[in-house]
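User: I'm writing a short report section on ligand binding and want a predicted complex to refer to. Could you take this sequence and pyridoxal-5'-phosphate and write out the structure as tokens? A short remark afterwards would be nice.
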Amino acid sequence: MLTIEWTASSGWLAPRITPYQNLSLDPATCVFHYAFTAFEGMKAYKDKTGSIRLFRPDKNMARLNRSVARIALPKFDGEEFTKLIKEFCKLDERFIPNQKGYTLYLRPTMIGTQRTLGVGPPGSALLYLIASPVGPYYPTGFKAISLEATSKIVRAWPGGVGDAKLGANYAPCIVPQMDAATRGFHQNLWLFAEGGEEYVTEVGTMNLFCAMKTKSGEKELVTAPLDGMILNGVTRDSILGLARERLTKEGWKISERKFTIREVKEAADEGRLLEVFGAGTAAVVSPVRNISWNGSLINCGLPEDKEAGDLAQRMKDWIEGIQYGEEDHAWSVKI
Ligand SMILES: Cc1ncc(COP(=O)(O)O)c(C=O)c1O
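Assistant: Sure. The structure tokens for the complex follow:
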């Protein structure tokens, strides 16, 4: 593991890479009570030539800095931390699988370490990195998921912290997910109700994309805008970038805009809903078969004998092609 301590008086101390071990923290440490914790999820990939690669690490560094700043933890130099992550990956090279789909998952984390029962800005913090080899999310190929849309339980709200990757955003989502599972659904589709409408935000811990035909017959790939309620996903941004570069010439309109679940249902009812998929580092894309909403089941357009739509499949292939260095691209950073 990689650890870097910070104190308000001395700033960042020297980084250390040590064997994986427990942290020893006073029970009054502020992270335990007031949730001073933010984290990232990224991966190290091994390409065909054996080189180690990261995927857009600058994005994870920028996001972690935004997250920690929101909870009064210290900002850090993202480029310097990336250099340390590279050193860490080189040292742990034997844990980076060399098969496509397999990676070393990297978990940068920052916690407030001040011992105090008072609530206030932590006077000390720990930035650390742990890692674990992981296999493909879908080892036997895609498995389309079913979602339960909910606006009664709200993941994020205007002026809240839905756009920060804070520990405090995750624990409250587990009970709603367990409840949805008792009804046979894999994930919650988080809606936000406003002005009599229910807007689509995110799914579980992924961003959401809908491909549909507009009433005038135009093909549109749509995802919710970065309005403070959505996590600015690296995969989301990559899909938007690739879609704008490669799909607009096929006639697709690429939209970051507010859209409602009613709009999705209407498209499905009129045969205009083409595909729905989640997007995140873990699975890259996660195709959706149906969405339960308001007592009806919205069919997301996947033929019964298929687990992924054409767009989801192409996005996964394009992004993995870049991640594993099969396609030369500035997003893939060779160590
Ligand atoms: C709430 C939430 N939304 C979206 C994402 C997808 O983000 P990324 O593509 O950076 O993994 C994640 C995962 O990190 C998440 O936790």
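A remark for your report: The radius of gyration is 21 Å. The helical segments are 30-34, 57-70, 78-91, 174-182, 234-246, 261-269, 310-323.
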